[in-house]
Design goal:
5 helices
Length: 146
């Protein structure tokens, strides 16, 4: 099961690089906020199809009102992510932007894991992980060099 989750995470990373590139291309043609809107509109269409036409959802939308308000901030953060990815890739390229994204993601993820934020399992921060982040940052620095 662990290897499947790791493979899915890898696929997500590959997909994010492609997505960022595609969104950046669209942003160059129609604008940053406009492409963010279109991307979310297309994504909404897909989710509507998967949930309501194909009945692939396994959850319970009826429980939406029992979720804490702050869990809905993911939608706002999603818009920020799309905009920031498009804006950064346009200016510095896919590899450099993705490198900065990964360093930010991993650093933040370690903090979220350590405190078990938003009901997630607590996974303590260790010195080994600190070394990993330092090495990741060093690798990112190498990627940013010309």
């Amino acid at each position: 099961m662990f290897l499947v989750a790791l493979l899915l995470a890898f696929i997500a990373g590959v997909s994010m690089a492609f997505q960022g590139s595609l969104n950046t291309g669209l942003g160059k043609i129609i604008g940053l906020l406009e492409s963010t809107f279109i991307v979310h509109l297309v994504g909404t269409g897909l989710i509507l199809l998967l949930l309501f036409a194909l009945h692939l959802g396994k959850g319970d939308l009826g429980k939406v009102t029992s979720a804490p308000w702050y869990l809905f901030l993911g939608g706002i953060i999603g818009v920020i992510i799309y905009y920031a990815v498009i804006a950064s890739m346009t200016r510095i390229g896919v590899a450099k932007a993705t490198t900065a994204i990964i360093v930010g993601q991993v650093g933040t993820a370690l903090i979220l894991d350590h405190f078990g934020c938003f009901g997630l399992e607590k996974i303590p921060f260790t010195w080994v992980k600190a070394v990993g982040v330092i090495l990741l940052a060093c690798g990112a620095r190498l990627m940013l060099m010309k």
